[in-house]
Design a protein that fits this description.
The protein is mostly helical. Helix content is about 70%, strand content about 10%. It has 2 domains: about 120 residues; about 45 residues. Strands 1-2 form a two-stranded antiparallel ribbon. Helix 1 packs across helix 5.
Length: about 170
Amino acid sequence: MCPASNEKNVTIKMNDVFISRLDYLAKKAKLSRHRLLKNLLDVGVDELKDLKKIGLFKLGVLARDVADWCNLKMTDPVTGDKSVPVTLDETFIAILDDLADQADLSRAQLMRNLVRVGVEGLETMDKVGILKLLTIIRELPDYYRSVCKDGENAVNALKNAANLNKKEVNTK
């Protein structure tokens, strides 16, 4: 996939187990892995911006720093040796870089964290059936367009049949 002029290919290092989790959710949501990654990053950045507005972003950074200071082990179920590509708008990358800077993380770490939180949230939604419901809701407009098109085709077929019958009656 060739990026547009204002887009850039970046990669997220993940392990095979996490990639499998991501692929499972993408399939359930009827999205490509790439689209799911972009959505998770987009939603994650929006949530971080909201947390910044109410002061919880700094509180989260402080909690992480305290955990580091106390030598509490943090698990990372995402990081691995596989590079998973995603194409992002350069403006979005700049926002990621700014947020990563404020959290004293690399862009890669921030992206992995956002994807991890998003995947964990989607897995919870999948367990309770909300993911399926959201997929159905997302597909409703296409379904209704299809039903309307089928109805339109049926009406046109009836009109054509009626016109043929009129022509046959007029020729007799």
